[in-house]
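Homework-ish question, so no full write-ups if that breaks the rules, but can someone show me the predicted structure for this set?
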Amino acid sequence: MSEHDPKAYRRDCLKILLALLSVWFFASYGCAILFREWLDANLPTVGSAPFGFWMSQQGSIITFILLLIVYRLLMSRIDAKHGLVDEKHQNEN
Amino acid sequence: MSQDFWNFLFIGCSFAVYIIIAIRSRAASTREFYVAGQGVSPFANGMATAADWMSAATFISMAGTIAISGYDAGRFLMGWTGGYVLLTILMVPFLRKFGKATIPDFIGDRYYSDFARVVAVVCAIFICLTYIMGQMRGVGVVFSQLFGIEIWLGVIIGGAIVFLYAGLGGMKGITYTQVAQYCVMAFSYTLPAILIAMALTGNFIPQLGLISTTTDAAGNAVPFLQKLNNINTELGFSEYTAGKMSTLNMFCITAALMAGTAGLPHVIVRFFTVKDVRAVRTSCCWTLAFIGVIYLTAPAIGAFARVNLIEKLHNTSYTEAPYWFAEFEETGQMAWVDKNGDGKIQYFGPGKSEAGTSAAFAGKPKHQLDGENDKMRGTHGEYLFTNKVDPSNPNELYFGNDIMVMANPHMGGLPKWVIGLLMAGCIAAALSTAAGLLLVLSTSISHDLMKKIIRPTLTDREEIRWARIASFVSLIVAIYFGINPPSAFIAKTVAFAFGLAASSFFPTLLIGIFSKRIGNRAAMAGMITGIAFTLSYIIYFQFNIPYIGKGTPDQYLFGITPEGIGFVGMLINFAVTLGLGYLLPAPPEIIQKMVDRIHVPTGAGSASNH
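A: Not a homework solution, just the prediction itself:
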């Protein structure tokens, strides 16, 4: 396991953070608000719902849940990479 | 079996469960009272947070708001879930690592000043009070529905129960009670939706029902949303899937709600109850998944309720109207004025009137009473109201947003026990949120104000006593505003709490976590300007201030409504804090080290003992 390098760790964290936030912004503000009318008109409907409308009432929420799951996985991975994992039986108090 | 029987059965049983749990897990120390001893599992905390989060406003009036405003209601759906992405990625893992019990603790330590702590306490109290008003209103609506009493009496009864209940357990007690409450809520919210989806669209998953087909009057299959759009335009409303809010306003409100969610003290402290940083991340996933269950169902309920309501009431003569209509009239949540004298209920939107109005009459319905204080009835047997009829439009029907969820099972013709279950769910929603808010209110006063600033010599036992006194006083204030709400709908009242959280805590916490360069004075200046701007904007447009008067919609800044102004307040806070922060000296070495430390995810358990 590599020696803990705070700078490299924070750089990795920041990358994940920015990537996830861009998806977050695109799914909610992008698809469901800013480009909604264009998407409603030009994209195929989801079931019988216009795409932008569906994104605002269903799609964005589903995206958010997936984002958090991905965040948890990615963070666990880079924590392990930098050796920043609490030992299982470490005395907490 | 009568309706009352089922109501009391479900509510009685759920209450028994809550009280047993609350008694069994009563808090013995301040650490248990504030953060449940930090031993809650991520899964249980996820459920508890979801219950804490799903307020009476969400449970009772969100589907109603969606039914009324269609696409525009997406701002609530996205705002109140998307905020969890910000919360998870930007805030709680770091705050949990910091390891103290409250938000003012973090702000007071990070910005090394008691003044900062006081500002944070005042903000926390203000936000929680604004928020809890909506909860008390919600409790009132449920009880008035339940016992057929006036809303004000319902608010007082609800307040008494919340106090008894929240006084018992502290964080440890409410966490495990909230787990039970979440189960009641999720079950009672989704079950009616499933039954109605089957009846209306033949699809037993409500989310699929919403995007599938239904049959129109002639028996042909039409897309469900298409049918709803047609109904809306026929009656003079804008298309359900199109909405009419400006894009900028929609953007600002969604952003204010998201940032507000990430800055709400009672949500953040929930994540202080788990073991370590990894557990926080896991818990966030569970939380949003549990919240998603309800938020993904709400749009379906809203759309179904609207179709049902219009099909059951529009152009129906009063004498043939369904039984539940009279019940809602009795409590003043629905009302009908026969403008054209044809004895039929007509429901129209602004598109059918030259003046562009759609209110049946001015204000909220007030029953006309005769000499013996009985409610007077008109020629068709309908209740009469003292409100001044609005002659500029043909709409004859009034109903509050708040009742859509409650009326839905009645409208769908569901069995009585479903309605009883729903009542239990509504009460669970209001109680769980009110309890969480009361906890933050009382800890803000007992811990942050009394213990940390005024009397550091306070013992554990005295601190808990202060917490209980504080929760009693806050509840009295909340009850007063629950009876006289400053804004018409529950969801709106709550939206203000978010505006305030977005303009005060969110930017200050975010900068505190991610910047080592920003010192105390810059942060204070930012926080105060942010909240002062937001607050004065909201007050100016919501209340009639002596000598200044009340603002009108054409004075809105760029057409942004008070609900969305928290976003602008947030930008102002960021600008002031960052602008001043780089001019003023950097914080002391020890603070910079602290910021570095909270970014390291290990060792959160021991940090709490600092």
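Now go work out the reasoning yourself. Hint: Chain A touches chain B through 46 residues (CB under 8 Å).
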